Amino acid sequence: MKIVLPGGTGQVGTILDRALSAAGHEVVVLTRRPRRPQDVAWDGAALGPWAGAVDGADVVVNLAGRSVSCRYTPENLRAMMDSRVDSTRVVGEAIAAARRPPKVWLQMSTATVYAHRFDAANDEATGVLGGTEGGVPDYWAYSVEIAKNWERTQAEAPTPDTRKVALRAAMVMSPDRGGVFDVLLRLARLGLGGPVAGGGQYVSWIHDEDFVRAVEFLIAREDVAGAVNLAAPGPLPQREFMRVLRRTWGVPVGLPATRWMAEAGAFALRSDTELLLKSRRVVPGRLRDAGFAFAWPGWEGAAGDLVRRARAARAGSGRLRARVGGG
Fold first, then answer.
1. What is the pLDDT of residues 141-159, one digit of tens each?
2. DSSP string covering 230-290
3. Which of 140, 208, 215, 326 could cross-link with 174 by S-S, CB 3.0 to 4.6 Å?
4. How far apart are CA 61 and CA 165, in angstroms?
């Protein structure tokens, strides 16, 4: 298949590009900074010659959008909104103009669309969308609006010959440097991976292998359209999530952090506490109903695999540095 990945140079795009290319698919990445023969330049906002890559493609998986790993200033929140909505709109325009439109358009969304809650899990049928819950910072509602507008833009695109799926993805865990798992593992290794603000907030996640398999599953399942949660069936409280990660790496303790300590740490990392404090208790209702089988349904097994791969990558980097230094 020919698969086009707009915005495919980030963490998730790199995971998909690597796996789909290894499976023998022709993968084209739309990026602002093309570096490889399979990269095509685009600006994520206007139609251009890049639209030719969409015409005749089998699948489009749009991943474009400003990273959420930043301070949630008004300027950055607006950039998140505009980059997601504009790129989704223009991908829809390219599909609508194509003589041979793709059969399916998978559009990245986010599990952040659901409400901050502890009492029950959110699936696609009964989950509560966020934006009106009390006791949380006002700007959290803007993050929900970003997700809603993201999905609405795809849904309203006039592409009658292309099936559309919105991927409400939880945090994708892979050992790649710079990803969310890499950051969490670094905190655990430093002894800082304890409960944050009590640690009762739920963490929803998905192993990178299952993320790729879920994307392949949704490409193949012509009967599935609309919003689909991409999350492992075992979300768990942050304190337990980090306890498992520390134990897997071999770190005996993790210092707890109060809310103000989390604020200070997020500021130092140029990130935001919403990523730490919002309770994302999300489960994959539609995937399970459609018969998808997770290879890594529980965090303990997934953490073990990710830690093993992270250790192997670090060992390989160490050997390479030793060869270069001794050469």
1. 999 999 999 999 999 999 9
2. E--S--EEHHHHHHHHHHHHT------B-HHHHHHHHHHTT--THHHHS---B--HHHHHT
3. 208
4. 9
